C-alpha cells in the first residue's frame, strides 16, 4: 500500500524533527498532497492512524491540503494548474503538457508540545 510507506516516511521525519528540536509530542500536522501523487487523503489518514499508534504523533490533528497540479503547456507556453494528470490545458485545451511538481507529500506545518 502506497499510503502506508508514505506514512512511515512521514513518521521518520517527525521523529527526526523531534530529536533536532527537542519536543515529545505532535499536536497538529498539516500535509500537502499533490493532485498528481495518486494518494487518496482518506486512505492516507487511515494509514497514518495505523502507523502512529504509540508514537509521538498519536492523537495529533491531521490536516491534508491538496494543491492543484502544475503543468507547462507547450501551446500556451505558460504554466497552468490542472485538477488531474490527464486533464487538458484549461486555457487552450491542449494535451501537450509537461508535469511540474504536484506529485509529492510535503509536511507544511507542525505544532508540537
Ligand atoms: Zn494551453
Protein described:
By secondary structure, the chain is of the alpha+beta class. It is 27% helix and 30% strand. The protein has a three-stranded mixed sheet with strand order 2-1-6, covered by helices on one side. Strands 4-3-5 form a three-stranded antiparallel sheet, with no helix packed on it. Helix 1 (2-21) packs across helix 2 (41-51). The longest helix is centred in the first third of the chain and has 20 residues, at 2-21. The model has no long low-confidence stretch (mean pLDDT 92). Bound molecules: zinc ion. Residues 73, 75-76, 89, 91-92, 94 line the site of zinc ion (ZN).
User: What's the CATH class, please?
Assistant: Alpha Beta
Poorly predicted segments: none
Helix content: 25-40%
Query: What kind of sheet is the major sheet?
Result: 3 strands, mixed
Which ions and ligands are bound to the chains? zinc ion
Euclidean distance between termini CA atoms = 31 Å
Number of H- or I-type helical stretches = 2
Nutshell version of this structure?
It comes from Azospirillum thiophilum. By secondary structure, the chain is α+β, with helices and mostly antiparallel strands.
Task: Spell out the key features of this protein.
113 residues, alpha+beta, hypothetical protein PF0899 fold, 3-stranded mixed sheet, 30% strand, elongated, binds zinc ion
Amino acid at each position: 500500500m502506497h499510503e502506508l510507506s508514505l506514512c512511515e516516511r512521514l513518521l521518520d521525519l517527525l521523529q527526526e524533527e523531534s530529536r533536532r528540536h527537542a519536543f515529545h509530542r505532535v499536536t497538529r500536522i498539516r500535509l500537502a498532497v499533490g493532485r498528481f501523487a495518486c494518494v487518496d487523503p482518506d486512505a492516507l489518514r487511515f494509514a497514518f492512524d495505523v502507523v502512529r499508534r504509540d508514537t509521538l504523533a498519536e492523537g495529533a490533528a491531521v490536516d491534508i491540503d491538496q494543491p492543484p497540479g502544475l503543468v507547462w503547456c507547450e501551446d500556451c507556453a505558460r504554466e497552468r494548474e490542472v485538477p488531474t494528470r490527464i486533464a487538458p490545458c484549461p486555457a487552450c485545451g491542449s494535451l501537450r503538457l509537461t508535469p511540474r511538481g504536484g506529485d509529492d507529500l510535503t509536511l507544511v506545518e507542525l505544532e508540537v508540545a
